[in-house]
């Protein structure tokens, strides 16, 4: 009996010893809160949080009156620039009038050449039924005189755009189209055409020219009898009996 008890007690001690070897050693509480070490030789430096800077006070500076430009005021023109532009516009007007009318440039002399401010974008060439923006447009007016005494006006802007103004404006009904000529009846408007003896009530024959400007049609061949038109007219510097068509607008 004593031997059995002794054996059981020895077995119990042996089991207890084995169990103690399998359990891990107790951990220190400090090991659970330790921070892993960084690379060798490096030291972690805490980053300071920047304090918000105070907002800059609103600017109280005001623009100097001398530095403020008046809206719409033209820039100063260098000395001589306008004169040079006028000279160039005058030369171009002579060349264009010779091209428009078919007469030699040497037949034209300058009667008036001046800088102007046109009241609209149409450069002062009023055409019935044609709307023009009402805006001051700087430019030039050139009046030429041909060898026979006829007067011809060219209106230009400062960008070089030029328009044949015509010396007389009439409206009438197309009676016939005869090649490059248009016969108009029922005339209204300016009958005082320089170089043309036009009696009120008589039909008017106007001739197409190389520089004639047609609005709504491409030329005389597209005009229908009975159409109402407005026409800007110039005397023929070549001495022809019929005035030249500077421009024509179909009214209806």
**What number is the mean pLDDT?**
77
Shape assignment:
globular
User: Biggest sheet: strands, sense, closure?
Assistant: 6 strands, mixed
Could you tell me the radius of gyration in angstroms? 50 Å
Percent range of helical residues:
10-25%
Number of helices: 3
Structural class assignment: alpha+beta
Low-confidence stretches: 1-22, 28-50, 54-79
SSE ordering = HHHEEEEEEEEEE
Strand content: 25-35%
Measured between the Cα atoms of the first and last residue, the distance is 145 Å
Please explain how this structure is put together.
By secondary structure, the protein is an alpha+beta fold. Among the domains are: 84 residues, no CATH class; 83 residues, Beta Barrel (OB fold (Dihydrolipoamide Acetyltransferase, E2P)). Helix content is 18%, strand content 28%. The chain is built from three helices and ten strands, in the order αααββββββββββ. The strands form two sheets. The protein has a six-stranded mixed β-sheet with strand order 7-6-5-9-10-8, with no helix packed on it. A four-stranded antiparallel β-sheet has the order 1-2-3-4, with helices on one face. Strand 2 and strand 3 form a beta hairpin. It is globular. The termini are far apart. The N terminus is likely disordered.
